[in-house]
Amino acid sequence: MKFFKSSIILFLLLFVNRLIAQSQENPWIFSVNASIINLQGDLNEKGVNFGLPALSFSRHLGGGISIGAQTSIADVENFSTSYSYRSLDGFAKINLGKGNFIPSLIGGYGFSQFADGLEREGFFPSTETSRTVFGGLGFSIYLSNKLAINLQSTYRSMNENDGFDHLQHNFGISLGFGSNDSDKDGVSDKKDKCPTVPGLKKYEGCPDTDGDGIIDKDDKCPEVKGLEEFSGCLDSDNDGIPDPEDACPNKKGNNEMSGCPDSDGDNVPDNLDKCIDKSGPKENDGCPWPDTDGDGVNDNEDLCKDEKGTLENNGCPELSEEIVKTLNEFGSRINFPANSFQIIGRKTIENLINIKKLLDENIDGNLIIEGYSSSDGDEQYNVRLSLERAQSVKDYLIKLGVAPERLEVKGYGEKNPLEDNESPGGRAVNRRVQFKSN
């Protein structure tokens, strides 16, 4: 009895102090064993008595603690008397380690019987069957996740007069079954929130690789120890933007600039700004627009950025007033028949050839060809006719070799007459083209 009390006290101490114990992958264990019975006491034979089978069935509860039931059969000799031995018990067991070799403590309560075939009356329920308390040690050697070799030795103390205190030694094999543990982390798939990845029991089977208290499946930075407010990531520059979302993780910035600073205040973040000390538009990578030809018109507005021009002409050079005046002298000699836009007459063609030559001699600057009409016909018709006259002049000049991009046409109808439309001569003069620098 003293041994049993000592075992119970040790068992409670181990439970209170939460010794690290194996959390079995397969919570149900079935064992098949052989047994050896050694009688104890001064008046008993200390022989070796073999028994078969000794069976046990247990359930792992957690924290290394299991409960179960066991039974055994044996033939026992005590001097000249033979006994048929039977036992049936309930027990609790605590594992003292983890791994392939697991020592354990066991204790329990049950019944033992030493039957010699004689009928006797006793306290419970006869002198052949006795209430029994027991305690002892054991260990298991795991050959695989499910299969183990077991050895167990217990001292069994009987409470009836005709029983024998005895040692029982069991040895055999056990088979684990029940909940699967696919990732072998000691948490059954049924309770494992990350059943395919080895994890920790305190996180219900999920891993926390960086040890920041945020499980990997919820951690946006599972390999960097971070903060919960940033879902497990760091904010290295303390700008309130987690590093994975921060385009400049080591420079304090703001949300509008994706975590980067804007040193020159041009709304272009420094990491994209090629001129961080000079304000410039985003379209030019944060740099001021240059004026390549130095004509006072920035390149973004300069249609001729490699040639000096004028602001009025969008940075392109213009034909001089003198040249335009000469062109218009030639143009005043280009007249059209009424209701016609055809280029006819030797003098008209000669004037167009002279205009082409003048443009060849003055390669800078483009030309607007303005078409006009007399007052014959309605206004809409006259506008269309005047545009067709300007287009005819353009087409002929292109035919002579003038670059199309230097020429533009406009039609003004009967506007801006040079002569009175009341006379045939005046109307003939008004059917004309004029030139402007573009």
Give the N-to-C terminal Cα separation: 120 Å
Secondary structure class reads alpha+beta
Roughly how many Å is the radius of gyration? 54 Å
Principal-axes geometry comes out as rod-shaped
Which spans have pLDDT < 50 for at least 5 consecutive residues? 1-24
List SSEs in N-to-C order.
HEEEEEEEEHHEHEHE
Structure annotation, total helices:
5
Mean pLDDT: 86
Sheet with most strands: strand arrangement: 1-2-3-4-5-6-7-8
Q: What is the CATH domain class of the domain at 2-177?
A: Mainly Beta
CATH architecture call of the domain at 2-177: Beta Barrel
Biggest β-sheet strands, sense, barrel: 8 strands, antiparallel, barrel
Folded structure, characterized:
The structure is a single chain. The protein is built from 5 helices and 11 strands; from the N terminus they run H-E-E-E-E-E-E-E-E-H-H-E-H-E-H-E. By secondary structure, it is of the alpha+beta class. Among the domains are: 2-177, Beta Barrel (Porin), CATH 2.40.160.20; 321-437, OmpA-like domain (60s Ribosomal Protein L30, Chain: A). The strands form 2 sheets. It has an 8-stranded antiparallel beta barrel. Strand 2 and strand 3 form a beta hairpin. The longest helix has 22 residues, at 379-400. It is rod-shaped. The relative contact order is 0.07.
Quick overview of this protein structure:
The chain has helices at 2-16, 321-331, 346-361, 379-400, 424-430; strands at 28-39, 49-62, 65-78, 81-95, 101-115, 129-142, 147-158, 166-177, 367-371, 407-411, 433-437. By secondary structure, it is of the alpha+beta class.
